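Quick start: read one record
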Amino acid sequence: MAIILEGCDGAPVIWGKLGEFVIQRTKRGTMYIRRWVKPANPQTVKQQANRLAFREGIARWSSFEGLYHKEYWDETAKNHGFRDGYRAFLSSYMILYKKKIAELSGEAEALNWVRDVAKPILYEASPVREMGIKVNNDLILAVMKQRSGRLFQERLRASLDYLRGLGWLDRIRYGLLPLADSLREWDIARLGLLRV
């Protein structure tokens, strides 16, 4: 599904999947269209071992962790930015599994170790994830600062008036909500995207 947003130059920007094509942007903002290609699935031995470990993590959550330690994982999720305890547990499970592969020298031994419910699994922070959260938060602050400027607001109002004139705002229900801070409903109401 394609999403329409406001570009930094004030013009509407669209990206996402449209039929058999994908519209994307590079980090520098260049837009391009390419034909959608089904991702490759090489079925390597390492990939299969990771998938098996992931399935075992889901099974451990369903049979043990989700029943006896759900409060711990829900609190961990809230403190570390996961959607829920299930995702926090699976992230920690896979990090611990990969550490145990190196310690115990083998996938089978590592899988047996993390599979054992007598051995507790505690939260393991992923350095890559933590760095990604920091970069994302910095980016969000920069974008919100840029969007609060007078020039951006004028261009945004002009673009929204243009889209209203075309009738697009009636047909696209959620595409423009990311333009404003969705935690502050008055911003969305002021833009005319939410009836109060």
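Residues 84 and 141 are 24 Å apart (CA to CA).
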